[in-house]
Amino acid sequence: MFIVSLIFISPLIFAQTKIDVDKEIHDAALQYQGILKTHPDITKFPQSYSRDGKVMDRPSDWWCSGFFGGSLWYLFEYTKDTKWRNEADKWTMAVEKEKNNTSTHDLGFMLYCTFGNAYRLTHDTSYKAVMLTGASSLASRFNPDYGVIRSWDEWKGYDYPVIIDNMMNLEFLLWAAKASSSKKFYDISISHADKTIKNHFRKDYSSYHVVCYGEDGKVLKQGTHQGYADDSAWSRGQGWGLYGYTVMYRETKKKKYLKQAEHIAQYILNHPNLPEDKIPYWDFNDPAIPNTERDASAGAVISSALFELSQYTKEHKEQYFNAATTMLSSLTTPKYKAEIGTNGNFLLKHSVGSKPHQSEVDVPLVYADYYYLEALLRYDKLMKTGKLVL
């Protein structure tokens, strides 16, 4: 009887590692108190800390401007300490003006990580109004003749490039569709996701980074900007795709998106170049492996996505949860997690922004911290309740 009963026990009990979330959030709070002390100017958004000890900040129109405020909201969510709510609100309002920015596809990162978490946790409708304006700004970059949201205004001579990162901004539009009862936002999301499945993914379910479109939506170029080569698998890009299609399934319940997410997950988890600790190299196909950089930001994104994906499948529930836990546990070790008071007070070390451009290589990055905190909160909820409410 015991063996038969075991089949029905949640696979969460099979996780090999127990993560002390209280300790990790405590340490994160100490680090972020340090960032707040060194960043009194809310027009300069914490981005990174160089290996030669220089703080790197960015303006509000930089694609990463929402991650710091979003991380502060996660600290508030876990601790319930109003000091984090106050700081989160301050850094959220610092990006409000970007609601009118129609020159970027990254408004999901900029506004949904900040205002989205703010509205979710406080139900303050003033946050909602900002997001609806921002969603319209993002939707303005969609051309129905192409069927996708334009990422950049130009890339290598092409004037309609679309990057896999753009899948991450569809959650923002799908929220707006529900909040506004506007089918336009929903239709744009479906069109973009479907075209991305068709044109961004190879037969093995790895993805190109950049796809350039021409007249009538014809694909003119499939390549990379931040990966090793046009036909390689840039690791964070694989994470963006995994996360994006997991969200698409959550919000639409369309099985094709669940299948896509699972195919991407299997590509990542079964790749021969995925290290034992499951923190990817910056590109799965870098010929210098194992003598090349890891990307903690890719590990954090993939871990967070797998925690959610584990909720939508029976067949791979245990595999996804345990892989996500291994990744997250690895990130809590001294190999990736900074000592208190070091690393410019960022949480994680060893992320890679764009190695081909020698930009932000083997440094902390604010979005690595954001998805690390998100993964911690998701792990905590799953361990306590067995389910995620997102």
UniProtKB/TrEMBL annotation:
Q: Would you kindly state one Gene Ontology biological process term found in this protein's UniProt entry? A: polysaccharide catabolic process
Q: Which residues bind substrate?
A: D106, D165, T224, R236, W240, S354
From the UniProt record, which GO molecular function terms apply? chondroitin hydrolase activity
Recorded hits in InterPro entries, A to Z, give:
6-hairpin_glycosidase_sf (IPR008928), 6hp_glycosidase-like_sf (IPR012341), Glyco_hydro_88 (IPR010905), UG_Glycosaminoglycan_Hydrolase (IPR052369)
What SUPFAM superfamilies does this protein's entry cite?
Answer: Six-hairpin glycosidases
Any one Pfam family match given in the protein's UniProt record, by short name = Glyco_hydro_88
Q: What superkingdom does the record give? A: Bacteria
Entry annotation: catalytic residues? D106 (nucleophile), D165 (proton donor)
Q: Which UniProt keywords apply?
A: Hydrolase
Q: PANTHER family from the xrefs?
A: HYDROLASE, PUTATIVE (AFU_ORTHOLOGUE AFUA_7G05090)-RELATED
Question: Family per UniProt?
Answer: Belongs to the glycosyl hydrolase 88 family.
This protein is called what?
Glucuronyl hydrolase
> Which species is the source of this protein?
Pedobacter psychrophilus
